[in-house]
Amino acid sequence: MKRIVAVAVVTLSAVGVAQPVRNAVERAKDKQDLRQDRRQVADDRRDLADVSALIGQFDAAAAKNDVAGIKAVDASFQSYLAKEAVEASVEVKQAQQEVREDKREVRSDKRELGRDLAVGRRPGVVGDDARDLARDKGNLANDRGDAARERAARNRLFLIRAELAPLQGLTDAASNAKKRALYSEVATLAKTDLVRTKVEQGEDRRELREDRKETREDRRPAH
């Protein structure tokens, strides 16, 4: 019996040490995510400005039937899309990593809630940890949706590049109309990226507030 009690004490002590460490890691990650969000918002704004400028140049060249100008814009768009394709693939990987991290947090929350119930912690502590689990499940669902949208945007970008390839160097009215429609869709993707990044920034700010609240809750007496 004494050995069982001793093991329980050691286990609870380990949990008591591990939880503050986990909280600190989560807050550090939240702050890192917010820094990344700020950089991403700036990048997305720049991308939107770049693609809007290219469309303006294309329209001006097409209006004057400036063959050299049209071809120059086509080449610039190809360079832009090549860069965006690389960035889109990176963003998909980052979104998938977020999902993996969310899954780890949910598993950790489940273990913590199970320990609460096993050792008979007071209802307030159990309730706090149950809310943490529900919150992290919500974050997982949101990030799964984000990952799906990132994949869809990347795939559409790849298809646009493929549709534009046979139109390069063509300057007749029909080809210009097809290119203009695809360029407009690229601009729409850029706008959507910016909006999505701003939403993510808001979610990350909320998550930092919630993790700070969780830290305060974990400092309360367990019994």
Give an account of the 3D structure.
91% of the residues lie in helices and 0% in strands. With 223 residues, the chain is mostly helical. The protein has one domain.
Briefly characterize the structure:
With 223 residues, this protein is an all-alpha fold.
In this structure, how is the largest beta sheet organized?
none
Low-confidence stretches: 1-15
Number of helices: 4
Helix content: over 70%
Overall domain count: 1
The total beta strand count reads 0
Describe the global form. Answer: elongated
Rg, nearest Å: 25 Å
Order of helices and strands: HHHH
Task: Give the helices and strands, then pairings.
Blueprint (H helix, E strand, L loop, with lengths): L1 H62 L3 H53 L3 H42 L8 H46 L5
Helix pairs in contact: 1-2, 1-4, 2-3, 3-4
Write out key terms for the chains shown.
223 residues, 4 helices, elongated, disordered N terminus
